[in-house]
Design goal:
4% strand; Glycosyltransferase; 3-stranded antiparallel beta sheet; mainly alpha
Length: 659
């Protein structure tokens, strides 16, 4: 593990003692670009889109196994493949991490251990003993997070007092109430609504093999006195713990008629957003909770809603030979939009069938008629966005929309004018009061809710972030909006305010400061910012200082903890691509740092157009849930090499597009 430490005035030291890099061979770069482009084209679906695997940690495949055993729908053949995956991802510490080569995580480890035991693994096998020892050394299953303890309560492994009070009647509260479902993020909303049904009904998992995990508790679960903790350590967090205690006293007095009415409201919410075979919210935890809620409500397994929900879950499986895992969701719109940019950068035009098919597929995925949950704060805005998944009409993604609009605009601004205009209109309407943009909602920043005991995962909200905001500014600038336009000006002001002390920007949806800094530098360049301004040069200095001896860049997922923000394990193709593109956006195409980064990409191990990358490269929720986009190591290096070649061939200093 390497720790990067910036000095007080790093501008004086960047590049000291580093020999000048050789000029990259543009001919060889062209050969790699052609090979990588052909590789990507060969993986395009017949209808024009791309969809690469999206991998998370051991939690999702573990929850898939637990879901089967909750429902008594055990699938030994599939579960055996997931068992192989779980064994392979066990860490050297004995437990399971949140990302490749990461630290022990108690909650992921408890779920993985339980899933393996449910699937029939011998708890006296060496790797199970090893895992059990690690879990107990970290306080045992009683110390796992709220979501894990909720799952254990369903399996009767902990008492229901191990989880906070979760009342379905909260769905009946008026919007002005301190807690309202509209005040949390879309992912929290879709996960929590079916979970509230489960909390009300408290169903018991079928658990046909009667498997328990008493051995993972330091003291018997029913003797454990304190389960809840203050998620923030602040006074308000302790106050919320007191509110939870009082609520427990009054729970028996809640009228059943009100609970039934609230369950009906929750069920209406779910069924309206069931989203066909793409699933509730397009994410596994929401789908799994919905299926368990249907079961708890007495739905038979041939009920249409039950069937479609199960199909959506099973579509997330990746099964190959004797090995497999379950994805947290699917990312086809994101993959296709970014791949289209890489293809355009590599020299393809709209006339090429590969790109033409991709653009038509993207145009057909625009959400024009459904007014999703985002109307809670922006009811006067017309729909016009794109989702992240194949379909997710209630939850279009601001980031995806900006990326797709820019791709369509680059390809043929006239042909796709209507789609571009509607997408831009929706993005403009989703700007938050502080000038930034969140991913799915506007002004979703009710930070006091982070203090409730349920929020120990720290991912309840969807406030504006620098990376998403940068993409929106980039899109508007590419479409011709001047930096004096009120929406763009407010976005630029927000980005300037969000700069870190060391010159970088936080990356909410990609690892991490390199991702954020790349995104923001692209926005500043597109908007016509003075790229010699001090805040820009500070970012350039940070990127150069963060470059590794091999010429690449890499940030560990642990950088989302502030005291570990400079940790690095290895360079990766995706992070190197972001850094090089960020530097090129700042006019650094001729710098030694860019040349060395290009050399890293040219010499890094790859199979055709797929650069080797084991490490996770993105984040679902910082410090809680991480992701590996398998497509990042393909389209980002192609994009970067193509851009470098183009800038050098045209003797240009700056890219001319938003991304």
């Amino acid at each position: 593990m390497v720790k990067l430490e910036l000095v007080n005035n790093p501008e004086e030291n960047v590049g000291e003692g580093t020999p000048s890099a050789e000029e990259p061979d543009l001919g060889k770069i062209g050969e790699v670009v052609e090979e990588a482009r052909a590789w990507l084209a060969g993986r395009q679906a017949e209808d024009g889109h791309w969809a690469f695997e999206l991998e998370a940690d051991a939690t999702i495949p573990s929850e898939y196994i637990m879901l089967n055993h909750f429902l008594d729908k055990v699938d030994d053949e599939t579960e055996a493949k997931l068992v192989v995956y779980l064994k392979e991802t066990q860490g050297d510490h004995g437990g399971w991490p949140l990302y490749h080569d990461g630290d022990f995580n108690l909650s992921a480890s408890v779920k993985a251990y339980y899933a393996l035991k449910l699937a029939g693994e011998d708890i006296e096998a060496p790797y199970m003993r090893w895992a059990r020892k690690a879990i107990l050394e970290h306080g045992g299953a009683a110390k796992a997070n709220v979501f894990t303890r909720f799952s254990l309560a369903l399996f009767e492994q902990v008492p229901w007092r191990a989880v906070p009070v979760i009342r379905v009647e909260a769905l009946l509260l008026p919007k002005w109430a301190l807690f309202h479902i509209d005040k949390v993020s879309y992912w929290s909303r879709t996960v929590m609504v079916p979970l509230k049904i489960l909390a009300a009904l408290k169903p018991r998992a079928r658990n046909p093999r009667g498997v328990g995990i008493r051995e993972l508790f330091v003291k018997p679960a029913h003797e454990q006195r304190f389960y809840l903790s203050n998620p923030t350590g602040k006074f308000l967090g302790y106050l919320m713990l007191g509110v939870d205690y009082i609520a427990r006293v009054f729970q028996p007095l809640m009228p059943k008629s009100l609970e039934r009415k609230a369950i009906d409201r929750a069920l209406k919410f779910i069924t309206e957003r069931l989203n066909g075979e793409d699933g509730l919210g397009g994410i596994f935890p929401a789908m799994a909770n919905a299926l368990m809620a249907f079961d708890a409500l007495g739905y038979s397994d041939d009920h249409p809603d039950y069937i479609i929900c199960r199909k959506a879950i099973d579509k997330l499986l990746v099964l190959r030979g004797d090995w497999g895992y379950c994805q947290p969701c699917l990312s086809p719109v994101w993959d296709t939009g970014l791949t289209a940019h890489a293809m355009l950068e590599s020299g393809l035009t709209e006339d090429d069938k590969v790109l033409a098919d991709a653009n038509e597929w993207l145009r057909g995925r625009q959400i024009l008629d459904v007014r999703g949950d985002w109307i809670a704060n922006r009811g006067n805005v017309r729909p016009g966005g794109w989702a992240f998944q194949y379909w997710n009409d209630y939850y279009p993604d601001v980031d995806d929309t900006a990326v797709v609009v820019m791709a369509l605009h680059r390809a043929d601004a006239e042909k796709y004018a209507e789609a571009i205009e509607r997408g831009a209109e929706w993005v403009i309407g989703m700007q938050s009061e502080n000038g930034g943009w969140g991913a799915f909602d506007a002004d979703n920043d009710h930070f006091f809710l982070q203090n409730i005991p349920f929020a120990d995962h720290g991912a309840l909200l969807d406030p504006p972030t620098a990376d998403v905001s940068a993409r929106c500014v980039s899109m508007l600038a590419q479409l011709g909006y001047d930096k004096t336009h009120p929406v763009v000006a407010r976005g630029l002001d927000y980005l300037r305010r969000e700069q870190e002390d060391d010159g970088s920007w936080f990356g909410r949806w990609g690892n991490n400061y390199v991702y954020g800094t790349w995104s923001v530098l692209c926005a500043f360049n597109a908007a016509g910012e003075d790229m010699h301004a001090r805040h820009i040069r500070r970012a350039v200095v940070w990127l150069k200082y963060a470059q590794r001896p091999d010429g690449g860049w890499g940030e560990d997922c642990s950088t989302y903890w502030q005291h570990r923000r400079d940790e690095v394990k290895t360079s990766t193709p995706s992070q190197t691509s972001w850094a090089v593109m960020g530097l090129m956006a700042a006019g650094e195409v001729d710098s030694d740092s860019v040349k060395r980064g290009i050399d890293y990409l040219m010499t890094a191990e790859r199979d055709g157009g797929d650069w080797h990358e084991e490490y996770f490269n993105a984040v679902g929720f910082p410090r809680v849930f991480y992701l590996r986009y398998h497509g990042y190591s393909a389209y980002f290096p192609l994009w970067t090499l193509s851009r470098y070649r183009d800038l050098k061939n045209t003797n240009s200093k700056f890219p001319k597009f938003g991304l």
